[in-house]
Amino acid sequence: MVTVEDNGIGIAEADLGRVFGIFQRLVTRDKVDGTGIGLAVCRKIAEHHGGRIWVESELDVGSRFMIALPKIELVVTPPQD
Predict the structure, then answer these.
(1) Coil, strand or helix: which one is 18?
(2) Within a 13 Å sphere around the CA of 68, how many CA atoms are in the beta-carbon half?
(3) To 10 degrees, the CA torsion angle through 19, 24, 38, 71?
(4) Dist. CA 9–CA 62, nearest whole Å
(5) Is residue 46 very low, low, confident or very high in pLDDT (cuts 50, 70, 90)?
(6) Residue 80, by phi and psi: left (phi above 0), alpha (psi -120 to 50) or beta?
(7) What pTM value is reported for the model?
(8) What is the CB neighbour count within 10 angstroms for residue 52?
């Protein structure tokens, strides 16, 4: 699992379900730059690899984004002579 934290503006509990939607800006551009696609892309990447992404947040404190990917076992075949 990978965790990324910030000390930003945080996300209201009512908005946590929208944060990974494409073009779902939660604040206006005059407060925070961005297009509203970054977290949607992160979600697609995590899901494409069989994982998931979620967020925990507190207003005026910051957010913690967690990404979990499945464990895969690598099978290494020795070279044949």
Answers:
(1) coil
(2) 4
(3) 40
(4) 6
(5) very high
(6) beta
(7) 0.75
(8) 14
* Token pair of 66 as six digits: 């967690």
Question: pLDDT of 15-34, one tens digit each?
Answer: 888 888 887 776 666 766 77
How, if at all, do strands 52-58 and 2-5 pair?
A: unpaired
SS3 category, 3: strand
Percent of the chain with pLDDT over 90: 46
CATH of domain 2-68: 3.30.565.10
**Residue 53 carries which side chain, given as an amino acid letter?**
I
Give residue 60's region: left, alpha or beta (phi > 0; psi -120 to 50): left
Write out the two tokens for 39: 């977290």
Query: What distance in Å separates the CA atoms of residue 16 and residue 20, rounded to the nearest whole number?
Result: 8
Q: Mean per-residue pLDDT for 41-47?
A: 95
